[in-house]
Design goal:
alpha/beta, Ferritin, TIM Barrel, eight-stranded parallel barrel, 14 helices, about 55% helix
Length: about 325
């Protein structure tokens, strides 16, 4: 009887945890891949339950005087939705292990099936943590080009960006030595410590790894996306420059986390860049599900048009750094 009670409570905990995770994945994260994974785990679990003598197990339930019935029993405060998912994954793993051990005395075959479910939960947990590490807000993406770099001022520049609603910072360097590139990258990364702003390195995977950046941005002629992901792993954000719908769809299919679409307008930073314009931006935004960031010639006069075209954010370089930085950020973030 007591063995059945242990089975009952842990079957309930596992069922409840998996359903909660599925609903948060569906309605909060809105991630199709993760939703498919957690639904597959729940489907296997429900099939497994049908193999158990559930009427007998439920009949053994004594919830009316269960010592764990009180509201404060086994309760842990959760700060946010991410913490809720992770804590429920922990509950699910614990319950799956307990069910597996209890069933070893009743049915080794069913115990093995529980083990399979437990390892599916482990795999999903890794995927969800990778997803959390790659979460970002693309609203205002500042690009620090090497021509705007002054080592003695970089911390002050980063502070101005962070304190005035910048959500992502990219460091773009082409001519500096690798050593100096890394010095700047390390300084920016340190300045962003404990800040909820993602740090992206343009093109250079080695620099991104060396300074522990949050991600990289690659162009159409850089290291291919598949190889970039293989080198950096699942926790790095990878953005891809695209200029047309075909490139955008291909990048999304290969696993890009966001697209940089442009140049929307002529730009001082890259005067040779080809102009794709708002029409291409609109087409791409309607056709992909990952965030799209408009880039190229964006300023306080045209940024709203970029956002109206469907972009999740704007990437800005020359407009920010060829004037009063704080004032120009505010011009781009006013309602």
């Amino acid at each position: 009887m007591r063995l059945l009670r242990v089975l009952d409570v842990n079957l309930n905990r596992l069922d409840e945890s998996l359903k909660l995770i599925e609903d948060i994945t569906r309605f909060h994260l809105e991630n199709r891949i993760l939703l498919s994974q957690i639904r597959s785990i729940r489907k296997d679990f429900l099939k497994f339950k049908r193999l158990l003598p559930m009427k007998k197990i439920i009949s053994a339930r004594q919830s009316s005087h269960d010592l764990g019935r009180k509201a404060r029993f086994d309760s842990i405060s959760k700060k946010n939705t991410d913490a809720v998912i992770l804590s429920n994954l922990s509950r699910a793993k614990e319950s799956a292990r307990i069910i597996e051990e209890m069933l070893k005395n009743l049915d080794v075959r069913l115990s093995s099936k529980t083990k399979e479910i437990r390892f599916q939960i482990y795999d999903f947990e890794k995927n969800i943590v990778s997803h959390f590490q790659r979460k970002f807000d693309p609203s205002l993406y500042a690009i620090i080009d090497e021509k705007y770099l002054r080592f003695s001022e970089i911390s002050k520049v980063v502070s101005s960006l962070v304190n005035n609603s910048t959500t992502m910072i990219q460091l773009r360097v082409n001519k500096l030595s690798d050593r100096n590139f890394l010095r700047y990258a390390d300084r920016i990364k340190r300045a962003l410590s404990k800040k909820n702003v993602k740090f992206i390195i343009n093109n250079r995977l080695d620099i991104a790894l060396a300074c522990n950046a949050d991600g990289v941005h690659v162009g159409q002629e850089d290291i291919p996306l598949a190889q970039t992901r293989r080198i950096l792993g699942d926790t790095f954000i990878i953005g891809v420059s695209t200029h047309n719908l075909k490139e955008a769809k291909r990048a999304e299919a290969l696993g890009a986390d966001y697209l940089g679409v442009g140049s929307i307008y002529p730009t001082k930073t890259k005067p040779e860049a080809r102009i794709c314009g708002l029409s291409t931006l609109k087409s791409i935004c309607r056709s992909v599900e990952i965030p799209v960031i408009g880039i190229g010639g964006i300023n306080d006069k045209n940024y709203r048009a970029v956002l109206r075209a469907g972009a999740s954010g704007i990437a800005v370089a020359s407009f920010l750094f060829e004037g009063n930085l704080t004032q120009r950020i505010r011009l781009l973030t006013r309602n």
